[in-house]
Write the structure tokens for this entry.
Amino acid sequence: MRTFSTPKEMQLFAKQLRKEGKVIGFVPTMGALHEGHLRLIRKARREADIVVVSIFVNPTQFDDPEDFARYPRTFDEDRYKLEMEGVQVLFAPGPDDMYPPGFSTFVEVKGLDRYMEGAYRPGHFRGVTTVVLKLFNIVMPHFAIFGLKDAQQYYIIKRMVEDLNLDLEVVPHETVREKDGLALSSRNRLLSPESRKQATAIYRALKLGKELIFSGERNPWKVKEEMLRFLKEEAPLGEVDYVEIAGVPDLQPVSEIEGKVLLAVAVRFPEARLIDNFILSPDDRLVWNERIN
Amino acid sequence: MRTFSTPKEMQLFAKQLRKEGKVIGFVPTMGALHEGHLRLIRKARREADIVVVSIFVNPTQFDDPEDFARYPRTFDEDRYKLEMEGVQVLFAPGPDDMYPPGFSTFVEVKGLDRYMEGAYRPGHFRGVTTVVLKLFNIVMPHFAIFGLKDAQQYYIIKRMVEDLNLDLEVVPHETVREKDGLALSSRNRLLSPESRKQATAIYRALKLGKELIFSGERNPWKVKEEMLRFLKEEAPLGEVDYVEIAGVPDLQPVSEIEGKVLLAVAVRFPEARLIDNFILSPDDRLVWNERIN
């Protein structure tokens, strides 16, 4: 596995690959790799000639310095996993490589960042879009894969790519779950056994919301209230940041459930803040991200 | 001359050119082409295999709707001039091609946009950086040329390109002037004969500032005051927006003149707002943008 730590070297190599007509697939990560990441990587492996994975714990997307400090870092283990998956290129820059002195440029996707994570983590998406745009320019991929656990992030990045006329495809990948439904996340390993047990309530709340909607409830407040009540009862260690139902792809809270909607939850446990979502199309009785796979 | 009006077609053609190994030089404009633009184009012609010129009067960079309405549009004449220069590709999109419904993404270069044009034209540079980034992604140039009459714009775009790891060179081109020193601008044709006469005071004020600095004055307020007094006397039809002395390339006003500085002026005449600047390196007695060429 070729490993690069500076943008210049990575970009030079990417240009060479492009010259040779290679299809570059890209999976950006913050490391602490789990099965969810590996699924994205396997998908990229099937569709690209060369898979580039980046590992960069991006300081500018953490609104909470404690969260940044606590974020798991398992670089040697990550490298080993990537080798095992046959990843050809690892891009692992340091903060100073990505943000040299004088750095001043920021990208924002307005409106889509207003609710849910955008409301509870000020500056988070600005950090995400800016670093992802940089990574796209450095890695020069033909496509990049993003996990749908971060559904708002996916829609925001898709919008950015379209708005800025970037010549690449943004590919979503369904959320990967534990057997009990908990969405895989690098932060799960921080949970105490008790929090870990209660964390399954998030998945069960989403299922409850889905069932209400599929049985005909179109009033978002009723659904959100039921889910909130459920979460308070089943996950007393957690503080609910939000239960939201937003339109897709504009991500604005809806006053009536119709078309395609994002049903999203964020809960703060003492050790880590967790998020999860289902994407629903009630008229077609379709649901994304529910499967335990 | 190949002409494209949609980003998709332009980008497809640019990709083809890149595949063929052609060097693409790019000159973005808002049309109403004058000798200043043509000099940039000639430079691009000398250094590129294929020169792409864009004509797009970008609504998002006008803080003043009247200025946008009044901005000269001379498309047929522009096309003719480009043909005469041997330009191979014209990209001339409409506003809806560049900003389709739902457009939400904005790029900002913070700090560098705080003074001078950034202070007097709120939102202007956000409009500029966003559209220029889009144009770069669509046209895929190896280099792009910007006139130094808009010096702040040049430094901001250069910063953006570096910060976002864009793989292209931002090339400056010295300001082109009339025989009496007035910097060429598409807005000059809007001036009344009386305003046109008084507008030369801008160039003469910059020369006065330069002479003061070169004769040892290091106090920016003294230099600015002398220039302001001169402008008020020599251009009574004009309202001075600012006379500023800022460091290069950080564009922050200096409290002592040293190193490389930008000496910049903006004056509002009844028919049009004009800007001009010299870039000075007093210790080396160097000046850019003064030449009448």
Chain A has two domains: 2-173, 186-288. DSSP finds ten helices and eleven strands in chain A.
